[in-house]
Amino acid sequence: MSERYCVIGNPIAHSKSPLIHAAFGAATGQDIDYGRCLAPLDGFAATVRELIAQGYRGANVTVPFKLEAARLATRLAPRAQAAGAVNTLIFAQGEIVGENTDGPGLVADIVRNAGVALAGKRILLLGAGGAARGALLPLLLQAPRQIVIANRTLATAEQLTQDFAAHAALLSVCAFADLEGSFDVVINATSASLAADVPPIPGSVFHPGTLALDMMYGNKPTVFMDFAAGHGASVRDGLGMLVEQAAEAFALWRGVRPDTAQVLTSMRQP
User: Which of 16, 66, 121, 220 is catalytic?
Assistant: First the structure.
């Protein structure tokens, strides 16, 4: 009998996770049943307990439940603890273990798929919310030269750096309008692309060697990607991050990390 997993969110019908995990299962010979689970906005904890009662082995968590998942977990892995958010749950031996694979997925997409090393690089992280928080520790572990966190509200960015005080020497913050110089990698972790908007940053943050990555993805380049490309940057959307974070979750559940190249290629087909 297939072991059961799902992605929990609200809304959830749009999620590509079942397609990705079905491909991973087929490629690795793992017999899994992975579906979508719509949880009521006020019923996340009850939904998780029902899944456990039904014998599910784990779940992914998406908007708007990542913070609630962190509170529900009986144990947080170090990455989830640093992020303050959970996108992967593991149900085992009576525990609900919370993990965060978003940051590792982002790093894997940049380093492995885009072929851009992060060691010694100057990185600009746009935004200081949950997406930025989840990415920060995995980015820091790549030993960049500097990470600048730019945010509309400076106090939020400053709080984020205080939460990562052990890495203070590599971190600095500023308002969008105060950005100076260009960066090797620019990551848009804001939700601006959802509103077809661009964070109010100067075009001078990009140069011809810059990789500009938007965590959002869609059927066409985001406005951030168009803006960055217009200033000479190479651009990338968040689909690779989605596939890579799914592979990290699959490895946590099944003990084998699937190859992502073929899945990512198929996901990019029109």
Answer: 66
66 given a catalytic annotation: yes
Q: What is the pLDDT of residues 140-181, one digit of tens each?
A: 999 999 999 999 999 999 999 999 999 999 999 999 999 999
Burial 46-67 (b: 16+ CB within 10 A, else e): ebbeebbeeebbbbbbbeebbe
DSSP string, 205-256: G--TT-EEEES---SS--HHHHHHHTTT-EEE-SHHHHHHHHHHHHHHHHS-
Instruction: Give the pair of three-digit tokens for residue 154.
Output: 């400076």
Query: Phi and psi of 224, rounded to 5°?
Result: -65, -45
Average pLDDT in the chain:
95
Residues 6 or more apart whose Cβ sits within 8 Å of residue 254: 28, 30, 32
What tokens were used for 40?
A: 């009521």
Q: Dihedrals φ, ψ of 157, to 5°? A: -65, -40
Question: What is the predicted pLDDT for the residue at 1?
Answer: 76
* Burial (CB count within 10 angstroms: exposed 0-12, middle 13-18, buried 19+), residue 117: middle
Q: Can you tell me whether residue 191 is helix, strand or coil?
A: coil
Separation CA 122–CA 210 (nearest Å): 10
Res 162: pLDDT? 94
Question: Hunting for tokens 């144990």 — which residue is that?
Answer: 75
119: Cα within 13 Å, side-chain hemisphere: 0
